[in-house]
User: Fold this.
Amino acid sequence: METEGNIRLTSVELTSLWQNYMNDTMSICVLNYFLEVVEDEEIHVVLDHALSIAKGHVEFVERIFNREDIPIPIGFTDDDVNLKAPRLYEDTFFLYYTKMMSTGALPYYGSILPNLVKKEIREFFTKCISTSTDLLNESIELLTTKGLIVRPPNISYERDIEYIQKQQFLAGLFGEQRPVTGQEILHIYANIKTTTLVEALTLGFEQVVKSQQVRKHMERGRKIAQKHLEHFTKILHGEDLPTPMTWDHTVTTSNSPPFSDRLMMYHIGFLSCAGIGDYGMAISFTHRRDISGLYLRVMTEVGQYAEDGANIMIENQWMEKPPHAPDRDELTKKKSSHM
Assistant:
């Protein structure tokens, strides 16, 4: 008789835990460095909270993998971080980074949770959502206190309930364009904030990476982010709506790498994949054809960038192989060769 304790992990559970381990070991390296150079005591508290969450995740995955006799990934270690490196970003960026990473964690964990069966794994990812929410709220409160939050745009309250009468509501490529809806503003605004994080990270990474190949990839990523920011801010400015602040001004002039090239490549690849998901989500809530067309174009561009980054990782033997289905063709070939 099967019990909760001896049921094997499903493919979703195994892969989700594996991916979490990779992401959290990366976060531990990044946060340890941030904590080493941060001067603001209030921001230090938030970073320390984030670090304790990441360490708790890693400990849980290690415990499950050891029990299931599953090899623990290498992930990222002390070899991937130089705690003696000079400051690469100002303190306020550390706070914004924590806010944005906890923001991105919520839809990620939310997509995993409905597909889990085993109770202890469901409880773990439920807790991941809860702690990410706490960290997000803590970051927003401190950003607000420090005057670093640009509130999403206001729009007028509707006084009457109306049904849409014209198909022009879906138009946008040619002729008169209707004003953007609140849902469209939400996703444009959210994607601007994510893109400003990528712009600042790639700018800093571009200064400190050792490999010329990686430097060119970071430069390309920064230019893509800047181009996308121009597209998104143009839409909001066209509606006389404010846009979030950028964070490239928080990058110092240091050229000493706090992280390994491998970690920096993984980090940007992770954010690129998250960006593709964000753009896909935005399309589903966008009815103006010009804006949905823009999302399709930028999503394709980020997809190609992410693929090129993965090829660099593979070429340099930096990419760990994730859990995967068995290669039946290869197994058949091996069996035939022994007959």
Summary: The radius of gyration is 22 Å.
